Amino acid sequence: MIPLHVKSVTMRFGGLKALSSFSLSLAPGELVGLIGPNGAGKTTAFNAITGVYRPSEGEVVVAGQVVNGLRPHQICARGIARTFQNIRLFRELSALDNVRIACHAGARTGFFDALLLTARHRAEEARILERAERYLEVMGLSHRRDEIARNLPYGEQRRLEIARALATGPKVLCLDEPAAGMNAAEKLELMALIRDLRDRFGLAILVIEHDMRLVMGVSERVLVLDHGVTIAEGKPEAIRKDPKVIEAYLGDAYLEEKHIERPAGPGAHP
Ligand SMILES: Nc1ncnc2c1ncn2[C@@H]1O[C@H](COP(=O)(O)OP(=O)(O)OP(=O)(O)O)[C@@H](O)[C@H]1O
Questions:
Q1: Which of 82, 107, 155, 210 has the most CB within a 10 Å radius?
Q2: Are 29 and 198 in contact (CB under 8 A)?
């Protein structure tokens, strides 16, 4: 079963088409990079997939079921977890509790079990604690178990967000710039960890990342968005040489990174 199939999704905001006929199919265990200049529509694609936005057109199909119009937590319960460009943790809770709350999303006992502290409830809580500790360990955060989330260094907050996403038991993990704000060594380490997650849990992973070298190094397949349109899709080696991709990056990030003056002429973006 294909865990995620996005079929020709268009997202309009008033007169702006932030995403045009976006299609993507993710197989179990696939690691796909989503790249494109600022404002290309990458986060909009994530928001359309995870139910933050309802697609203007097209279908998002999760494990064979159309999920258009479902709430984000309902889509999460069907196996799509995500992290955010701007970290969204429960800042005042401990690292453990951030992950434990996510584990509760799949809890098998209800309100009355909790109220009556049934044996079933206690067993479920023990199971959840064990799982939460395991995800902290997977993300190298066991030593931070009882620290308040906002006190963690930035890179560890990002990893905690991934631990929390994992705790919902996803089939697909959508990571929105997971390495943003990290130094080069931390970025490399995180990318190795992301690959490891894919291998260990058989997850399909979709990752937005601005650092081209990084995303090319980790992904088997790369999709390139520009002005809401998918301008290229393929293996990193081919994408790197694709003139449309080079041109899109000439639009902003690439030029800035390379300290090149913008060329004048019909090909240049306004
Ligand atoms: N809720 C919204 N209302 C109006 N316009 C929006 C909304 N969300 C996104 N947009 C617009 O859609 C376009 C795509 O934005 P998006 O955030 O998806 O780009 P991005 O590729 O993720 O960019 P970045 O790399 O800077 O995060 C932008 O022009 C943005 O202003």
A1: 82
A2: yes
Domain membership of residue 245 as a residue range:
1-79+170-270
- Test site for ligand 1: of 13, 215, 252, most ligand atoms within 8 A of the Cβ: 13
Each residue's pLDDT tens digit in the chain (270 positions)? 889 999 999 999 998 999 999 999 999 999 999 999 889 999 999 999 999 999 999 999 999 999 999 999 999 999 999 998 888 899 999 999 999 988 876 555 555 555 556 667 777 788 889 999 999 999 999 999 999 999 999 889 999 999 999 999 999 999 999 988 888 888 888 889 999 999 999 999 999 988 777 888 889 999 999 999 999 999 999 998 888 888 887 655 555 665 555 545 444 444
Q: What number does the ligand 1 atom closest to the CA of 210 have? A: 25
Which residues form the pocket of ligand 1, taking CB atoms under 6 Å from any ligand atom? 13, 16, 18, 36, 38-44, 85
Q: Which atom of ligand 1 is closest in space to residue 40's alpha carbon?
A: 21
CA distance 61 to 132: 29
ipTM for the whole predicted complex goes beyond 0.90: yes
Query: For ligand 1, atom 3, which residue shows the shortest CA distance?
Result: 13
β-strand pairing of 31-35 with 221-226? parallel
- Are residues 135 and 151 part of one domain? yes
Judge if 59 and 185 occupy the same domain: yes
